[in-house]
Amino acid sequence: MNPVEIEQAISELAEAPFDAAEFPYAFLEAFGRKATEIKKLRKGDTNKSDLGGVLQRNNIHIATCVPGAVSDTLAALKNSAATTKFKAKFILATDGQDFEAEDLIGGETVACTFQQFPDHFGLFLPLAGISTVKQIRESAFDIKATGRLNRLYIELLKDNPDWGTAERRHDMNHFMARLIFCFFAEDTDILNGEDLFTATVDQMSNRDGSNTHEVISEIFRAMNTAIPKRAAANLPRWADAFPYVNGGLFSGSTEVPRFSKIAQRYLSHIGGLDWTKINPDIFGSMIQAVADEDERSVLGMHYTSVPNILKVLNPLFLDDLNAALEEAGDNRRKLANLRARIAKIRVFDPACGSGNFLVIAYKELRAIEAVINERRGEADRKTDIPLTNYRGIELRDFSAEIARLALIIAEYQCDVTYRGQKEALAEFLPLDSQNWITCGNALRLDWLSICPPTGTGVKFQSEDLFQSPLDQAQIDFENEGGETYICGNPPYRGSKWQSAEQKADMASAWAKHPKLVKTTDFVSGWIAKYLDYSDSVPNSVAAFVTTNSICQGQQASDIWPAVFGRGVELCFAHLPFKWQNLASHNAGVTVIIVGLAPTSKGIKLLFGGATVRECDGIGPYLVPDQLVAVEKTNRPLGPQGTMLFGNMPRDGGNLFLTSEEASELRAQSDVKHMVRHFVGSEELIKGKQRYCIWIEDEDAETAAKHPFIYDRLKRVAGNRSCSSAQSTREFAKKPHRFVQIAGRSEKYSIVVPRVSSENRDFLPVDYLTSEYIVGDRNFALYDAPLWNFSVIASRLHWVWIGTVCVRMRTDFSYSNTLGWNTFPIPKLTKKNTDDLTRCAEDILLAREAHFPATIADMYVRDKMPTNLQAAHERNDEVLERIYLGRRFRNDTERLERLFSLYRKAKMQ
Predict the structure, then answer these.
(1) pLDDT of residue 137
(2) Residue 603: exposure state from Cβ atoms within 10 A (0-12, 13-18, ≥19)
(3) Are 522 and 510 a contacting pair, CB within 8 Å?
(4) Within a 10 A sphere around the Cβ of 330, how many other Cβ atoms?
């Protein structure tokens, strides 16, 4: 269940007659606990309560009680031995009139009437496996409103299927934006009368809702008719009470979808909510999912936390402004200068979605301005910050409308907070009709036309927001010459997964660097557009949330030299972290934040968790002061052995054997040598046994005479002949051999998986005899000196691979040309190689002592066998002393040394 579904279930529970015996089970059901769990609790099989309530292990302890005993019952739950023994995370007590609960882990408490407890449902989201950010736990209203609007949306589409078509989807979304404004406006006194919109619709609509669409249409028409034109408009008397809103929100068609009785009741219920509680920086992200069928299943998940947004905005400009505010103190001149500076700042999000970044930026700057006004004794002063200085581009029309609406609401709420409701109301209507959120393709539009450096205006781009006419005058900035900050969270799409249209967008964005079109992620297109923009606006600064892949592997080698070559640098960056909405439903994407600015000699900031490091430069891999990009090479730069791919069968599985088939063939003297162990990455790491048929060319005739093998080779030939790849079809004539044989060992191989988990402190690597055929899921060093094993098994190499190679999500994706051949190894003496060989032997012997434990078993972080951990420690000690004469202090120092050596090796 998603939060919207949970909120609905909890609200229905609160409205139903209270049943003390049934309530604990109904409460758990509302949070999506499985029917089998509830059944076992009812039977008492898993109910661990010692107070006559319901206790689900590792979850919650619930007890109902007689009226007036709620606080005492909660105290008893907290002191319960069962609560402690069975690790309940929550305790809850209620008598059907009052409701009290506590989060025993976080310490948060709830005390309210029974009817009000749905307002606090966010506290209990972990019961549904959803751990989430504080802001969304506290935003019961936004989730409730989203759910109600979603049910109305679905009901309207049911009765008006044509409004769900592509041709009319914009009309439907535009109608929803109008409704949201009406609900907000009537609860904040923007409309002249308490609940004016909802009450009018309820009063003037037929019981069956048959004329509701006509009533709403007339209301919309009134709000688009200026007062002097009202008489000629022939509005109904009841509609004439609505104010003139303008702003393009109610212009154009006033057609409204038809309402059923159910839809009309949904509308009334939505109007009954307290819309003064709307949080535009949360609500906008949630409501955009209502209009998107693909996103509706995870309704309520689309929220970017304010702390994450501030990771972008703080180093981009807010930290500097707050420092200037502190430095100004109570100096009236300095405060006035800072206020004038803030009023000229332009914030531009070219992937604005529903406006989260713009709303937070606006609210933060209004907060700073309010402090300035207060210090100057001008607390009631009208804001100098024009909303039109907060520009955006968004591809989806509904999201673009919601972004503008969110900013309008944010402006009103800020006015109420800092100046009072009376002043806010006096200046709110009519709305500004200017369009500062452009609906269009950010990789195709000219950013200069939307966010010019001075008051040259905004060229209107498309027929988009609020039905604005195409001949609308360009929008001039009210304040010229200000700073421009570009920010946002552009869409992610790997280079291999981009559609033809997206590839064309990338070609447009990277027009000056066409080689980057095919190999870079979609998000890099926004970096390309910033480079072009900064050519004309050299004082502009940008910060984007991006996938960490653009600072790894070949992309790092491609993108950043092009960026640096255009006179742009990384002025700050956040090291990889998880960009999450709700933990059980987030995309699981690991992101970085990159700050881009014209090259300067200023200090650069590198953020990692709670730490920040100052440095002179940030390189392609987000390593301080190391600006070099690692380039693929087919030969090792140092003394290490040559690493090759494993062998690729392309056989349709027909050259592989079960354990029983392998045993049977090994019992036959003429073919037993054709049966080999096969090692892919899973076999290497998890110790799985797998066998294959391996036939040398000189044994092909003998193999073809064996009935079982002949049948397998016949299948191989048939499979290959049907392949779409010509190279594979050609090998149908040689069914006895693997298609790609990269190498074979005479004695042994050192084998590394191509993909492995980052949750190990050392890369998985093994040493195998020539009996094993290495598969193409691995790389191998064939008959190379054993000291190479020592290098691969080191922390030094783990850090290098984790930095310069691509990641598959967070897993390591090993590369021989980018990770191994480039790994800088100093010149080694015989003593060095002897010492490293001994270290490799010690690691292998330590593993052997734990047979049959596998690499997967032995290399669990913090659970490695003591002797194996010690062997790796000795290995790191020996290797790092070769590099530095001592152990490195941390991974940053390791990387700095490795990049320094790499740079020197490339110059030789």
Answers:
(1) 57
(2) exposed
(3) no
(4) 8
Q: Please report, as a single letter, which amino acid is at residue 812.
A: F
Q: What is the mean pLDDT of residues 318-324?
A: 96
The DSSP output letter for 820 is: I
- Residues with Cβ within 8 Å of 486's Cβ and at least 6 positions away in sequence, in order, are 348, 349, 350, 447, 451, 530, 533, 540, 541, 542, 543
Say if CB 186 and CB 198 are below 8 A apart: yes
pLDDT of 193-218, one tens digit each? 778 999 999 999 998 999 999 999 99
All residues at 6 or more sequence positions from 228 whose CB lies less than 8 Å from its CB, including other chains: none
Spatial distance between the Cα atoms of 142 and 282, rounded to a whole number of angstroms: 7
Q: Whole-angstrom Cα distance, residue 341 to residue 817?
A: 50
Percent of the chain with pLDDT over 70: 91
Stated pTM of the model: 0.79
Burial grade of 579 (CB within 10 A; 0-12, 13-18, 19 or more)? buried
CA distance 527 to 549: 14
**Spatial distance between the Cα atoms of 834 and 814, rounded to a whole number of angstroms:** 26
Which helix (H) or strand (E) segment holds residue 813: the answer is strand 811-813
The type of residue at 518 is K
In one-letter notation, the amino acid at residue 877 is E
Q: Is the pLDDT of residue 62 over 80?
A: yes
Residue-wise DSSP of 629-692: PP---SS-SSSPPPEEE-BB--STTTTEE-HHHHHHHHTSTTTGGGEEEEE-HHHHHH----EE
Q: What is the pLDDT of residues 241-295, one digit of tens each?
A: 999 987 778 888 889 999 999 999 989 988 988 888 877 766 666 666 665 655 5
Would the pLDDT of 587 be above 60? no
Residue linked to tokens 């606090």? 120
Model confidence over 336-371: pLDDT tens digits? 999 999 999 999 999 998 888 999 999 999 999 999
> What tokens were used for 277?
């509680």
- 547 DSSP β-pair partners: 591
When mean pLDDT is compared across 126-130, 767-771, 799-803, 890-894, the lowest value belongs to 126-130
List the one residue out of 637, 635, 634, 643 whose CA is nearest residue 792. 643
Please report which helix (H) or strand (E) contains residue 769, including its range.
strand 766-769
**Rounded Cα distance, 180 and 250, in Å:** 12
Question: What 3-state DSSP class applies to 555?
Answer: helix
> Residue 810 gets which letter from DSSP?
T
Within 13 Å, how many C-alpha atoms sit on residue 19's CB side?
A: 9
Mean pLDDT of the chain: 88
Buried b (16+ CB within 10 A) or exposed e, 373-411: bebbeeeebebebbbbbbbbbbbbbbbbbbbbbbbbbbb
The two structure tokens encoding residue 474? 């360009």
Distance between alpha carbon 899 and the CA centroid of its chain, in Å?
A: 30
Which region among 81-90, 205-214, 587-596, 698-707 has the lowest average model confidence (pLDDT)? 587-596
pLDDT band at 581 (very low <50, low <70, confident <90, very high): very low
Distance of CA 579 to the CA centre of its chain: 4
Strand, helix or coil at 582? strand
Whether the CB-CB separation of 644 and 741 falls below 8 Å is answered with no
Mapping DSSP onto H, E and C, the string for 136-189 reads HHCCHHHHHHHHHHHHHHHHHHHHCHHHHCCCCHHHHHHHHHHHHHHHHHHHCC
In Å, how far are 152, 391, 404, 452, 847 from 407, measured between CA atoms?
24, 10, 5, 20, 61
Q: How many CB atoms lie within 10 A of CB 36?
A: 8
Q: What is the tens place of the pLDDT at every residue in 370-416?
A: 999 999 999 989 999 999 899 999 988 878 888 888 898 899 999 99
Distance of CA 54 to the CA centre of its chain: 37
pLDDT tens digit string along 813-869?
999 999 999 999 999 999 999 999 999 999 999 999 999 999 999 999 999 999 999
